[in-house]
Specification:
Helix 1 (15-26) runs parallel beside helix 8 (301-317) and helix 3 packs across helix 4 (81-105). Strands 1, 2, 3, 4, 5, 6 and 14 form a seven-stranded mixed beta sheet that branches. The longest helix has 25 residues, at 81-105. The chain is 30% helix and 22% strand. The chain has 446 residues and is α/β, with parallel strands linked by helices. The chain has three domains: 2-146 and 255-317, FAD/NAD(P)-binding domain; 160-250, FAD/NAD(P)-binding domain; 330-434, Enolase-like, domain 1, CATH 3.30.390.30. The chain has helices at 15-26, 41-46, 48-65, 81-105, 163-166, 183-194, 214-226, 301-317, 363-367, 396-408, 426-434, and strands spanning 2-11, 31-35, 109-112, 114-119, 122-127, 130-141, 145-147, 160-161, 175-179, 198-202, 230-232, 247-250, 254-256, 288-290, 330-332, 338-342, 352-358, 374-380, 386-392. Bound molecules: flavin-adenine dinucleotide.
């Protein structure tokens, strides 16, 4: 079968492909999405949503166990992990239905199957032995990434597992070695240790989250130790001890889904196999764009969404919008969460002063019984503009969006009249004021 009725063909229905497809349809384009697996991509099915659901489930358990703090006498029945996984799957299915409904509302077709290039305008799609050819003017590649493998260790889905396998375990293992102390490793360590698994977390660099602020990394380390996680840093041979563990979870990075015959369309890739794109998300071939993880920038769902939306507009209106990475917030669902954001030229900034506000001094943190952590703020001493925020503490994943807006709007100061009281957001202001020794919520410093 051969189809050529589409203005734009999108490969992949993760955050990048989904957003690109919907935005292009909003501009009046006739769009088709080709998806080899489930609608929603890594984010919905094996990434952001399942991890955060399991984290929230753990948080709920802890809230029940601590409900006496609010005057309740609640007891918890033994946890059946398979029930939690089933709830997670039901939530994912419901969100997926919502996404399918949105695609259908914009008359976006979905073709199930594996897409690969025949030439720069033609894709073949293979599904259950049947091949369909799809020809079009414009193609958006949003094929994402998959767990990367470590030399000599093959994921067997049983003992040596990846993040997708871990998110589908029906029982909590007695113990687990997690290789990789980045965001995913920390989230997995938090979730599984919280449900009773003895975790050893191994990172080859000297710190967990090696690319983040060392104070944040240290606070996360302390909190994980408090939860009973064993942490091995500067550890390069942890896999040598694999036999000692019931499960070994390898989360050392992501590899591009690049088995789509890119060479047949002459699409250039980097040494690591990601697609090279310019500031408009255009590949080396004029009519082909690439967004999200496969373009290898931040490997984050909202980067994928942003690139998807911008690409759709660039295709429909001609290249007009450049990708702006001035501020890109990050969050890790440790317990409590941690998050950070800084201006993109932070490493070149001079004359920086720092302020810090601990949640032990926040009345809202008392109300929430969430007093662990702090907000740290970097400020340009001359212009008084905030340059970065780092947060460890409850709801830091939400607070960081406010911090991003503050940085993005290039404010010269943060004003108290915009902050509701009692709120955790006030802590951003308090950390900022502390940089000048002017925080009224902290004692005078010596
Ligand atoms: C455990 C984990 C937790 C994460 N948590 C977060 C988080 O909290 N926040 C966050 O921002 N990011 C998180 N991420 C990262 C986030 O999931 C990705 O950055 C995001 O999904 C990338 O979106 P994408 O559209 O580029 O690709 P994907 O979401 O990977 O989607 C790609 C889609 O393309 C399809 N596809 C691939 N090849 C083909 C082909 N040849 N033919 C047809 N279809 C194809 C795939 O089946 C897939 O559905 C997490 C990732 C993991 C693994």
């Amino acid at each position: 079968m051969s189809l050529n009725k589409y203005d734009i063909v999108v490969i992949g229905s993760g955050p990048g492909g989904f957003t690109a497809a919907v935005r292009a349809a909003q501009f009046g384009a006739k769009v088709v999405v080709i998806e080899k697996s489930f609608i929603g991509g890594t984010c919905l099915n094996y990434g952001c949503i399942p991890t955060k659901f399991l984290w929230q489930s753990l948080k709920t358990k802890q809230k029940i166990q601590k409900s006496y703090e609010y005057g309740f006498k609640a007891t918890l029945e033994p946890v059946i992990f398979a029930d939690i996984i089933a709830k997670k799957d039901r939530n994912i299915a419901n969100i997926r239905k919502g996404m399918e409904m949105i695609l259908s509302s914009y008359s976006i077709d979905i073709i199930n199957g594996f897409a690969s290039f025949k030439d720069k305008n033609t894709l073949t799609v293979l599904d259950s032995g049947i091949t369909t050819e799809v020809s079009t003017d414009k193609i958006i590649i949003a094929s994402g990434t998959k767990p990367s493998v470590v030399k000599n260790f093959i994921f067997d889905g049983d003992k040596i597992i990846n993040s997708t396998d871990a998110l589908n375990l029906k029982e909590i293992p007695k113990n687990m070695l997690i290789i990789g102390g980045g965001a995913i490793g920390i989230e997995m360590a938090t979730i599984f240790s919280g449900f009773g698994c003895h975790i050893t977390l191994a990172e080859c660099e000297n710190y967990l989250l090696p690319n983040d602020d060392s104070e944040i990394s240290e606070e996360i380390r302390r909190n994980l130790l408090r939860q009973g996680v064993d942490i091995l840093t500067a550890c390069t041979n942890a896999l040598g001890d694999a036999d000692k563990y019931e499960k070994v979870l390898i989360v050392t990075g992501r590899a591009p889904n690049n088995d789509l015959n890119f060479e047949k369309a002459r699409i250039k890739t980097t040494q690591k196999g990601f697609i090279e794109t310019n500031e408009f998300c255009q590949t080396s071939v004029n009519n082909i764009y690439a967004v999200g993880d496969i373009a290898g920038k931040n490997l984050l769902a909202y980067t994928a969404q942003n690139e998807g939306a911008i690409t759709a507009e660039n295709i429909v209106k001609g290249n007009s919008i450049k990708i702006d990475n001035f501020v890109v917030p990050q969050a890790v669902f440790s317990m409590p969460q941690s998050a950070s954001v800084k201006v993109s030229n932070f490493s070149q900034c001079k004359d920086i002063i720092f302020g810090k506000f601990p949640f032990t001094a926040s009345s809202r943190a008392f109300i929430e019984n969430e007093r662990t952590g702090f907000v740290k703020c970097a400020v340009d001493k001359i212009s008084k503009k905030p340059l970065a925020f780092w947060i460890v503490g409850a709801h830091s994943d939400e607070l960081i969006n406010t911090a991003s807006q503050i940085l993005k709007s290039n404010m010269e100061h943060i004003s108290r009249e915009t902050m509701f009281h009692p709120s955790l957001s006030e802590s951003l202001l308090n950390a900022y004021e502390d940089a000048f020794g002017k925080c009224t919520e902290l004692p005078k410093s010596c």
